Amino acid sequence: MAKVVDITEKLSFDENPKIKIRDVEIEVNTDAEAMLKLMGTLTTKTEGEATLEAYELLFNEEDREKISKMKLPFKDFKVLIEESINLVTGEEKGE
């Protein structure tokens, strides 16, 4: 019979982190599959393509609509993407 190792207690089942812009909270997707795709995107695509794909991987449709309504300048949009990636990779700690 095969050995079974229960790692449940070692895993974190926390909710996704959120980024706040003014009074709007936006959830950042942290699931492993999306993050692996994101890592591949960041290394193989042009900056514009990578930014667009990161946007779609990091935020669900509802939160993308919230972001769209903000009409962020591209410079600020890039900051949103960069900070979201930092949050997911653990380089940035939230409040």
Overview of the molecule:
The protein is mainly alpha-helical. The protein has one domain. Helix content is 54%, strand content 8%. The chain is built from 4 helices and 2 strands; from the N terminus they run ββαααα. The chain has helices at 32-44, 47-58, 61-70, 74-89; strands at 18-21, 24-27. Strands 1-2 form a two-stranded antiparallel ribbon. Helix 1 (32-44) runs antiparallel to helix 2 and helix 2 crosses helix 4 (74-89).
Helices and strands: which structural class?
mainly alpha
Spatial order of the strands forming the largest sheet: 1-2
Mean pLDDT: 88
Shape: globular
Strand content: 5-15%
H/E element sequence: EEHHHH
**Straight-line distance between termini:** 47 Å
Major sheet, described briefly? 2 strands, antiparallel
Total number of distinct structural domains: 1
Radius of gyration: 16 Å
As a percent range, the share of helical residues equals 40-55%
The beta-strand count equals 2
- Count of runs of 4 or more consecutive helical residues: 4
Low-confidence regions: none
Topology:
Blueprint: E1 18-21, E2 24-27, H1 32-44, H2 47-58, H3 61-70, H4 74-89
Antiparallel strand pairs: 1-2
Helix pairs in contact: 1-2, 2-4
Search tags:
95 residues, mainly alpha, two-stranded antiparallel sheet
